[in-house]
Amino acid sequence: MWDSPDVLKRRVPRVLVSGFLLAVAVSGLSACRTSPNVAAYVGDSQVTVTELDSAVADRLADENIAAYAEGNEEEFTRRVLSLLVQEEVYAAAAERYDLQVGNSAVRTRISDLLGDDDPDDVYSQLAQQGIGRDDVFENVRQSLVRRGIAEAEGEPDGLDPAALQARYAEVREDLAQVSFGYIVVPDDATAAGVLAQLTADPASYPALAAQYPRLSLPTVEARSPEEVPAALAEGIAAAAPNTGFAGPVADVEGVVVTFVAGKVYPPFEEVRPQLEKEATTAIDAVANEVLEDVRNDVGVTVNPRYGVLEDGKLVAGGGGVVDILGDDAASTATDPAATPAG
């Protein structure tokens, strides 16, 4: 069975597409560069302190984001800096692959992700987690960049509507549930009569169940094969649609009449988030390798006033210029004696 999608109420997870707020784990050696007016160097580009302060202020203008960041201003600033650095890395990757993701394409994708949800409601929920509209917009742009990179590298576009429908057709049978119900009656004669009525008129199930309510299911239910009662599983698996069987069940007083309506399948739109997650995982696996190469090439250096790298994340700390690399940079950042002189 499919994993249950993460939920942030309603369909927010579809807006929070894969990769949002990734820790900046950027690799690449760069020359030792320091300036109190620069928050981070990304290749030949800079994120200035002024740009960072402005980006933070823009987000804090939203009262929900301000409430989220209150008391954790430094951590929030680090997160914003991580996002700004990430934007520069993605811009370099897009340039390398000659990818142009226009605003209209981003808006179309966001509209698709929102579906029937109220955008103001969704953005309000996200703001309560410190995520602004511009963050979502850039995140979706980056997801489209990853999609373009993967396609350029030969990965089929699994997020294409036709591809999603084709994948749904492939897995549909694996998602099948069985619709059944059971009515507990006092004796074999009653069981035979109830089963005959159900077979002749399946719609009569609720009325018949209401006559014997003590242990009966009031209506037929759709369950996965794993959720079917063990005592009934074999009979249910063997039964044809709109048929049933009757017999005793251990520890149940009376005769259990089991009616099997047949298989049911979740509709495409219900399964679509999981299909998209699967396709996104495949796309990201290809694109992230390319992005790592871009990171290696451009190199990133962060002003130590904003933190140091630990386990791939920009965290509070100090000690010198921080190259966002990996284990080598982490050891450099945590060992003042190893910090480049510049």
Q: What is the CATH topology of the largest domain?
A: Triger factor/SurA peptide-binding fold
Low-confidence stretches: 1-13, 17-31, 319-342
Tally of helical runs: 13
| Average pLDDT rating | 83
**Would you list the SSEs in sequence order as H and E?**
HEEHHHHHHHEHHEHEEHEEEEH
Strand content: 5-15%
Overall geometric form:
elongated
* Termini gap: 55 Å
The portion of residues assigned to helices is: 40-55%
Number of strands: 10
Characteristics of this structure?
four-stranded antiparallel sheet, 13 helices, 342 residues, alpha+beta, disordered C terminus, 2 domains, disordered N terminus
Secondary structure: elements and pairs:
Blueprint: H1 12-15, E1 38-42, E2 45-48, H2 49-60, H3 63-69, H4 73-96, H5 103-114, H6 119-127, H7 133-152, H8 161-171, E3 177-185, H9 188-200, H10 205-211, E4 221-223, H11 230-238, E5 243-247, E6 255-264, H12 268-298, E7 300-302, E8 308-310, E9 313-315, E10 322-323, H13 327-334
Antiparallel strand pairs: 1-2, 1-7, 3-4, 3-6, 5-6, 7-10, 8-9
Helix pairs in contact: 2-4, 4-7, 4-12, 5-7, 7-12, 8-12
